[in-house]
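Appendix C reproduces, verbatim, an entry submitted by the partner laboratory led by Prof. M.T., so that reviewers can inspect both the input and the predicted structure.
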Amino acid sequence: MRLLLDTQLLLWAAAEPKRLARDVREVIEGLENEPFFSPANIWEIAAKAALGRPDFQMDPRTLRRALLDNGYGELAITSRHAAAINDLPPELTDFFDRILVAQSMVERIPLLTSDPVVARYSGLA
């Protein structure tokens, strides 16, 4: 099964896998699953690192290369994804969450997230 990861889980999977719940780590690492990241993840890391956020201090280029080298697929953002943002509820206020949810919905790929609001739209709730 293809899986899209939100940015926090992606950072934890790459740098601090012990922070992931055991069941989430097993799903991500499961041989039958294909983990994906979005350019929105890389964009969010770059933007928040530039703002000095301590929880986003990872070089986005290094992370992208490591993800690709470790078997993650990259899910490109398309105009269909951008248009689908229009259908999302206003309670999803974070732009990065909105595009990830839109990608998840359009592509019918579950979005793994630790955010309870985002989880309602992740295809896994």
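The CA atoms of residues 8 and 113 lie 8 Å apart. Additional entries are available on request from the coordinating office.
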